[in-house]
Amino acid sequence: MSQPYVVAVIPSRYGAQRLPGKPLVKLLGKPMVQWVYEAAKRAEGIAEVLVATDDERIREAVEAFGGTAVMTPHECPSGTDRIQAAMQGRKGDIVVNVQGDEPGMAAASIQTALEALLNRSDADVSTGCIPITRREDFEADHIVKVVRGADSRALYFSREPIPSHRRVEESVWNTPGYVWGYKHLGLYVYRRESLEAFVRLEQGHLELLEKLEQLRFLEVGATILCPEVKHDSIGVDVQADVAKAEELLRKLHGL
């Protein structure tokens, strides 16, 4: 049996409301999109890496560092739709969605999510998570939490603190290394048919409530695997996140 052809696609939109031109923001001297591209290139098993964009400035920057950019319609409603648009007419059995605003995503995390899907024929999508060991992170709205089953299957995602710890003794909370929950990382690996099915689905009730598009899959009974990875990643949404991302990059790459 031949190996599946794996394509990583990085959705990179220029017009982010809170940080316009975000993919081109410099982090330690490189545009953010270049950090993401290089991480995807280092991940074993990926045959091709594309940047899906709506702006010529991003295309030019990607081509300047030797990457491949694909122009997609400006009006794509989500990053997933932009990835689907970029894949039109291209081969690819497995499609990896590496978020364009997560420059600290480790190549090892991408590999873990990819291997999880390749090893489970019953799964439609895979992603990644890390343990949350600080209560303030568990309760933070900007951190998406995931509850998993014993087989690493995602049961639910929320910005709310899930699962509930109200019935756990405070003395247990204070145990060193206590795990409050799991943080979901901005990374998805789709089977090609799952990606194509996703963009045809209507937004579900839970997705509209939580503003989390991965819930669209869960509402229709799809299986999302969520293996634990070793490296955290942070999204860059506002200017204040730039310094945090640079700190993470220094730690990840020993700079």
Main attributes?
255 residues; globular; 32% helix; 10 helices; single chain; alpha/beta; 20% strand; seven-stranded mixed β-sheet; four-stranded antiparallel β-sheet
Structure in words:
With 255 residues, this protein is α/β, with parallel strands linked by helices. It has 10 helices and 13 strands. It has helices at 32-42, 56-64, 79-86, 107-118, 135-138, 170-173, 192-200, 205-210, 215-219, 241-253; strands at residues 6-12, 26-27, 30-31, 48-53, 69-71, 94-98, 125-126, 129-132, 145-148, 154-158, 181-184, 187-191, 224-225. The strands form 3 sheets. It has a 7-stranded mixed beta sheet, with helices on both faces. A 4-stranded antiparallel beta sheet has the order 8-11-9-10.
Rg is 18 Å
- Coarse morphology: globular
The proportion of strand residues reads: 15-25%
- Specify the number of helices: 10
The low-confidence runs, each spanning 5 or more residues with pLDDT under 50, are: none
Give the spatial strand order of the biggest sheet: 5-4-1-6-12-7-13
Class of secondary structure makeup? alpha/beta
| Average of the residue pLDDT scores | 92
- DSSP summary, beta strand count: 13
* Main sheet record: 7 strands, mixed
- What's the order of the H and E elements? EEEHEHEHEHEEHEEHEEHHHEH
Cα separation of the termini: 42 Å
